[in-house]
Amino acid sequence: MDDVARLLKESWTLVEEDRERLSAHFYARLFLLDPELRKLFPVQMTGQGDRLLEAIITAIHTLGDPESFDEFLRGLGRDHRKYHVDPEHYRTVGVALLDALRSTAGDGWNLEYDQAWRDAYAVIAAKMVAGAAADDNPPFWHAEVLTHERYGPDTAVLTVRALQHPLPWRAGQYVSVEVPRHLPRVWRTYSVANAPNDDNVLEFHVRTPAGAGWVSGALVRRVRPGELLRVAAPMGSMTLDRESERDVLLVAGGVGLAPVKALVEELAAVNRTRWVHVFYGARTEADLYGLDGMRELVAAHPWLSVTPACSEDPDFDGELGDIADVVARYGPWTTHDCYVSGSARMVRATLRVLAEDEVPPARTRYDTFGDL
Ligand SMILES: NC(=O)C1=CN([C@@H]2O[C@H](COP(=O)(O)OP(=O)(O)OC[C@H]3O[C@@H](n4cnc5c(N)ncnc54)[C@H](O)[C@@H]3O)[C@@H](O)[C@H]2O)C=CC1
């Protein structure tokens, strides 16, 4: 797969500046090939192109790591059951994708690239179909909103109860969420902010400024207790290595706290011997919406510490600066299992710090949401 990976990355550079044209071409071709497919997508396609491209980029980036590549695509296949996608649709998507790549890349495209994308797409589709076929769960769960708390104008913490069946997620994973009442057929992913529990209750942390993020906007500003959401299959590999005896570093930026909190909750059930250090960054003190909750966990668990930091609040009585720099100041983290969650820039910066500390990549877990 090494050669294919090189060809994919090389050919991707021909189109990456032109993503809008690529996705416009892709969807135009897709709906021409099979007009019935249009019904599976939201009425308003704004933002939909980014979703497709993010998944492609993530797949390309994980090619060199067969285990993550496999897990990512099987998860994506399970997740796509919510769209009622069947194996035949994958063939049509492959044709539209190749066609869009060829016409967007223009003269730089060649037969080698074409073959590499065909081969890679065949593997991607086969893994997604296999992931979907192996899943006995429903394509999605209906989930009732139980609580909804606002933290300032942009942030909300909500809990929902998955109805029908148990929803089998692992701490650190994320799920797609739809708000059918306000935005039918538009799905966005959110990390689950609590560990699995017998009540089938999931917690989400959502932040979006006014006017941005449709699903997030609805989740922060419109959704009320009693409303029904839909939640699809859990995905992601930022899960706890329970076999490991190493100490743990968890780094969260903003609502990236969600999976970190879930991991701490899971550790609370099993851990006795590992020191666990949480670094939790936000722009201002007011943005540290989850700090009180984390301090409660610290009070209950002697192995846990939390270091909050603010990057744009000189008056904050604690660590100042970007969370990655704060983590660097407390290092080295060479002997730890490390988990990183936040914006792509924050994750990139933190991964650089850990690389400088020579933390082996296999001991660093994070989820690539596309643009790392
Ligand atoms: N599993 C995951 O990785 C999850 C990721 N997220 C992502 O986390 C982000 C959170 O956004 P907000 O709450 O608005 O927080 P934010 O984007 O305001 O982040 C604030 C924190 O990130 C740090 N940061 C920002 N840019 C940085 C840089 N270039 N270098 C180093 N540190 C940097 C700041 O120092 C601060 O600690 C969103 O992009 C969301 O998609 C959210 C949940 C889960």
UniProtKB/TrEMBL annotation:
Protein name, UniProt field: nitric oxide dioxygenase
E.C. number(s) listed in UniProt: 1.14.12.17
Family statement: Belongs to the globin family. In the C-terminal section; belongs to the flavoprotein pyridine nucleotide cytochrome reductase family.
Domain Globin intervals: 1-133
Organism: Micromonospora endolithica
Source species taxonomy: Bacteria, Bacillati, Actinomycetota, Actinomycetes, Micromonosporales
Record keywords, A-Z: 2Fe-2S, Heme, Iron, Iron-sulfur, Metal-binding, NAD, NADP, Oxygen transport, Transport
GO molecular function, one term: oxygen carrier activity
Catalytic reaction annotation: 2 nitric oxide + NADH + 2 O2 = 2 nitrate + NAD(+) + H(+); 2 nitric oxide + NADPH + 2 O2 = 2 nitrate + NADP(+) + H(+)
CDD domains named among the record's database cross-references: Mb-like_oxidoreductase, O2ase_reductase_like
Cofactor(s) demanded: heme b; FAD
Residue span(s) of domain FAD-binding FR-type: 138-241
Enzyme class per UniProt: oxidoreductase
